[in-house]
Every structure is written in C-alpha cells, then in structure tokens.
Amino acid sequence: MARVAVLGGSFNPIHYGHLLLADDVLERLGLDRVLFVPAAAPPHKPAAQLAPAPDRLEMVRLAIEGHPRFAVSDLELRRPGLSYTVDTLQALAAGGDALWLVIGSETFLDLLSWREPRRVASLARLVVIPRAGSAFDPESAAAQKVLREIGVEGGFVHAEGGVPPARGVAIVHAASLPLSASELRQRVREGRSLAFRMPPAVIDYVRTRGLYRAEPA
Question: Which domains does the chain have, with CATH numbers?
Fold first, then answer.
C-alpha cells in the first residue's frame, strides 16, 4: 500500500511554490508519492478567472515531468459537474492507497463549508500547511471546532523527520515561496517576466496558448 499525498487545486497556473511545497511534504512525512489533482470546476472559484481545465492539466504535466514521485490525475476533468473533494477521495480510495489530503491552514478552518467534511476526513488523513506569515493556532476555538466536527481523534500533530504520525491531523511547516497564481496571471497581462517563477516548459505553454492575456470577466 502506497502512501500518497493528494494535492488538489485549480493550478491556475501551477508554479514553483506548488512544486516546492509538494516536495517538502513528501520528504517531511516520508510519503511515497504526491498526486496533483487539478480541479475542473472548483465550487469556490469563479469560472471566468480559470484557464480551460485541459490547459491547466497540461501545465501540471509539464511542471512535474521528470520528478519520479510526482504524478497527476485527470479524475476531476473526467467527472461532470463541480469538483468536490469528497468524490475525488472516494474514487482514489478504491485503488487501495493510503491517502493524505494536503490543505492550507485557512482552508482547514473553512472545512465545515465543504461537502461532507466528516467523510473527507475519513477517506484521507489531513495535512495542514500553515500559511507563511500568518498565525495558525491549533488550540484556537475555531480549529478545535473543526477537529471536533470532522471526528478526527488524536488532535494536531507536528510532523517532521520523515515519519508520518500514526493518528491525528498532521501540521507540516513546509517550505514556501512568495508566489501567487493571481500575481503570475497579472504579470502575463502586463507582459512582465515569468522567469524563476514557473518551470520554463510551463512559461512556454502559457505564451504559446495565449493564456491569461485578457482581464477576467
């Protein structure tokens, strides 16, 4: 049974911040693989701001090419309708791997607004990445409420040293870069440099396909 970190998102576009975080989570938790899962239609993001899903999938493929423990899934693109994490985890769990869902600390605090959050937590171990520069207090009332409502026992566990904790929600202070997809989209619109922010193959793809040149509707 492989231990797989599931990293979902719009990847609009994918950049070095995503890749560095994924590599660091892999190492700090001692997992076998990171599976990138681009969302076809994220329920919390306006569709007008997204590049077409096939383009975002291809950019992820280009970005991770050559990394032996990175993989990408088109599962959410093959499924009609909105991309709900619970449905994705249900499908992935059928493969028999042990799943670890990687989410940001702000997303964790908003988890109760997701579809079937308790089911999400039963299908995959949760890995919370505190955002750089922001305070995430696992003992806060808000964090403890989410933990209680999703039914996870063992509390929060700070994970380091390449050994995944046996139980609880793992907190991983993964390496981060001061990059955001929204800033990169703005750079494209303004004709500014993308160098050292995204893999060269992704930069070439963005330019060749003419992505992000227009203001979002």
Answer: 3-209 (3.40.50.620)
